[in-house]
């Protein structure tokens, strides 16, 4: 009996190590351990043993059964694991094939720059104001202290309509319209489309500006410098150098051109900055008392500043665009990059 | 405006290098836009003496010269004939680079060694044409660079002047700015005029009839002049600031204008009828021929300078042919005057005649500088043209101009600028600008600007001068105290940005077209003759015909963008534009500028790719985008009404988008003829939405529907229906039974073709049933479903398949 049991154990070991699939293992397991299996058959012989031997051999049978069971369990789970690995291996796909992409749309770069600038100024408490593009001479020029027949009008080549209105040459008339209906204090920016009869690589007959205006008690030129420095740092990066230099606009005094250190060469001098290391991006100044006079503000009581910038200019600097006309060609190969 | 470094040095002493000077001027508001180092790199062209000149052995027209360059004697082959041994010449040595990137190398010319080149003025860039080589004055020292020894080495500055700085349209003006900044003053010597013979009054009389437009008119006469080409220095000096030499007299007037900013005019005195000058307004329709041989028709607002016979000059703008200086002129009348800026500008603009003279007069010249300029010119004419200046001068100046006395509060300047300058520093700055300053007891300063600073009239103008001279760099940067909080963007602004986001999420690219368009845009869209969009706003001065009217529709620009992209082989397009159109209004001066939103779809529905379909996009793709957009704006009860809304759509594939009686917009396939008009081969689907209507109909989402927790059950229903029966009708009929258990009904298949009789279509709908409070039983669903089926059959005459 002991020999038979030992024999069985031996056979089971060999069968497990020879088995090549889950099925053969399962079959062998039933053959050894099943209800009609070989171990059960052997156990029927227990009855013929003496009362002394029976518990000893019985114990032996149990321990051999446990051993064989463990053997099969381990082998089966190893086999399952191997099968899974091999199945997953066979399911491999080419992950380098491009993804199935939905169409990606885009906002025009001009729209994006306007949004970005507006967002920065919203942080400074500036609200957005708007006005008409087809304007009266009074709002576009006279109220902004461009008297008729003044050479300052030559600074802006104007489109006129046949019924003697004009296409606004800057967003500054929005200043006038806002001041006429609002009392100080006020902080506004006015993004919009403007027009000048001029067309080449750096001029487009239609382009975009953002006008800013702040009026309050005791606003100074130093405040203007502060706001514009923080603005340019937020737009172009923390360390961007800013320079204000004297200039002239009829509706501000003192007036300034605002330059930033060239973002292309870092101030060393290159073609874009004409070797000066500086890029002009803004015009600004303290609101001229003559303007207050036109909108019935008391110039002794309040003070303020105004500024204006070309959106195309900023977009060109931000994205390294050389020719402004590219912005209005509506070529999707260009637009899809935004 | 051009000035040169050397010329400025004649008026003010300064130590700054050209680069430092450019920076100083820019930071004063005189922006240096360009610099040219004249003569830089020409140091290899040196003064040399021709020691010996002999015939070239192998060429008749060449000579071989032995030339002393101050260090050694070299051989140079030369083709010019206009020189002899002993002449001083300009030798370009080996290594010199002449204008036009012409490099001088050692060479052999017909067997003879040549170590350099003898240069002509043309080759050195000193003249446009020249005959033979340049012969230099015998006083020059051999070996020294030619440009240096002729005093030609200089730096030219191009200054972008702002229109307020009329005073800086001259060398002395720029010099004054430098002087004020560095704390010195300009050199302004007394001019000695050598007067001889009879008084000017014996040769000319002047009467000014319009002293409003001409408050001051001065003149001097110079007799016995010889008109000749100007000397080299004068030609070069004028060339440096971009003025072409004419003759010695005209050049003197130009030189003085460049130097002092006062435009002058020289008349041929003998051509003035009756030796009279009358300053008056032109007669309406008076005809006058200017120096440039153009006939000008004048109007009564023009100011003219006349003799007894009629106009001889257009005041401050240009002289006339009839009194022009010519080679036989001997007597000269020099005019120096002050004209009213606006009058000069009006005439100059009307005639399209812009001159150096009108440029200065219309910006405002120095009324106190009139005589100094006249004296300087008379003295120079006498010197260069060999004439004698008549005794005295004429000066018609009835009302002396007095510059304003401005009261100036130093503490106001500090407050406006955000600085803390003492009154004393401010006084120094103002005096440095040649203002006269009186301190009042209350700290207020009474400031009178110099006569040439016509831009300084008010306290704020003085504040600017303080800021400028003290330096913008010396103003600190501070943050204003906020007493305002910004408004939330308006509904209008928020919706604009929301719409853009929705369209971008649908794969659409935003475009921006010009607001002006071509006048035939309405024709291309087949718009009817009475279409109000034909009443466009026209530009009076368009750049080109294609940009001459303000657009009333965004569709033409959109279709052009589609066509242009297709020509670049970008075939699958989804474009949108959201911008203004410009609508004329009856009885209102200002046009209406509503925002429209348009979109165009063409090409394939999906992106090109290995797993994507290449099916063509169609009407329903466009409609789907609009449906999503309206849903996101919570605009409900939208009706798609077949009413042939626009001529530019296919009549069978277009509709209006309505809410109640409000039309929100339209959608459709572009009409084949319009498609052709824009050069498009494939169908294009467009929508047009009126932004203002969307703003009005837009609703905030009030409440959401809580999803049911119970299971759903779906039933399909296929039917054969007349081709004319709309999907909308079928769905309305389904929902018409008003059973709460119908959660959703949609059309999932539409089929026409094989197996379906002509005039019919097969339509399949799927209805999803679900209750909020229980699981529906089959029986319950069957009852509702058969009511739907019966309704469809009885009301719509469909047959169930
Ligand atoms: Zn640069």
From TrEMBL, chain A:
GO terms for molecular function: phenylalanine-tRNA ligase activity. PROSITE patterns: AA_TRNA_LIGASE_II. SUPFAM superfamilies: Class II aaRS and biotin synthetases, tRNA-binding arm. It catalyses: tRNA(Phe) + L-phenylalanine + ATP = L-phenylalanyl-tRNA(Phe) + AMP + diphosphate + H(+). Binds 2 magnesium ions per tetramer. InterPro entries: aa-tRNA-synth_II, aa-tRNA-synth_II/BPL/LPL, Phe-tRNA-synth_IIc_asu, Phe-tRNA_ligase_II_N, Phe_tRNA_ligase_alpha1_bac, Phenylalanyl-tRNA_Synthase, tRNA-bd_arm. Its EC number is 6.1.1.20. Gene3D superfamilies: Bira Bifunctional Protein, Domain 2. Residues 111-317 form the Aminoacyl-transfer RNA synthetases class-II family profile domain. It is found in: Cytoplasm. Its cofactor is Mg(2+). Mg(2+) binds at residue 253. It holds the Pfam family tRNA-synt_2d. Tetramer of two alpha and two beta subunits. This is Phenylalanine--tRNA ligase alpha subunit. It comes from Pelotalea chapellei.
From TrEMBL, chain B:
Its EC number is 6.1.1.20. Mg(2+) binds at residues 455, 461, 464-465. Its main location: cytoplasm. One of its GO terms (molecular function) is phenylalanine-tRNA ligase activity. The keyword Heme does not apply. Binds 2 magnesium ions per tetramer. Residues 708-801 form the FDX-ACB domain. Residues 39-147 form the TRNA-binding domain. InterPro entries: aa-tRNA-synth_II/BPL/LPL, B3/B4_tRNA-bd, DNA-bd_dom_put_sf, Fdx_antiC-bd, Fdx_antiC-bd_sf, NA-bd_OB-fold, Phe-tRNA-ligase_IIc_bsu, Phe-tRNA-ligase_IIc_bsu_bact. Residues 401-477 form the B5 domain. Its cofactor is Mg(2+). Keywords: Aminoacyl-tRNA synthetase, ATP-binding, Cytoplasm, Ligase, Magnesium, Metal-binding, Nucleotide-binding, Protein biosynthesis, RNA-binding, tRNA-binding. The keyword Cytoplasm applies. It catalyses: tRNA(Phe) + L-phenylalanine + ATP = L-phenylalanyl-tRNA(Phe) + AMP + diphosphate + H(+). It is found in: Cytoplasm. Belongs to the phenylalanyl-tRNA synthetase beta subunit family. Type 1 subfamily. Tetramer of two alpha and two beta subunits. This is Phenylalanine--tRNA ligase beta subunit. It comes from Pelotalea chapellei.
